[in-house]
Amino acid sequence: MSEDESWRGKVGRLDEDAVGAFLAEPRIARLACLDDEGWPYVVPCWQEWDGEAFWVVPREKAAWGRYLEADARCAITVDEEGAQRKVVAQCRAELVERPNVGGQWVPVAERMSTRYLGENGPKYLEPTLDKPRWLYRLVPVSMQTWQGQDWAGRYK
Question: 6, 46, 67, 97: least surrounded by Cβ within 10 Å?
């Protein structure tokens, strides 16, 4: 007689559609980069996934904006409790624009503010549109995904 293991949920890698749907949710990412002395530096941030790369918008004075410019190697994770979905990617940061006001970062930030804060997103963003921001595209070099309550076969 087999024990009910429905509590494990769907186990295994996320397919492309599931990755897109998961990353479209308002989940805080953690971005890892290297600081000026080569130490790991991890920061929570908003992200936007376009199906090929992650977009992040650091404030002008955010240390990690400078760190990504100095060394493009970085990693980003997005995860959750419960179903334990997660995306872990090692990336190369492409500098799209240095800190500016009114640049290409604005529509990205508008979409993020609405996704993360709902109807209050514009109320949060609009008073800060005069503050310069960076725009980075994080292109995955490798990406792993997972869901469910079990170990991947390689660990068993």
Answer: 6
- Find the Cα–Cα–Cα–Cα dihedral 149, 43, 132, 25, rounded to 10°: 10
Contact 148, 7 (CB under 8 A): no
Q: Looking at the DSSP assignment, which residues form a beta bridge with residue 90?
A: 75, 142
Residue 86: name the closest of 23, 138, 7 by CA: 23
What pLDDT is attached to residue 41?
A: 98
- 143: which strand partners? 89
Nearest Cα neighbor of 76 from 9, 11, 31 is 31
pTM equals 0.92
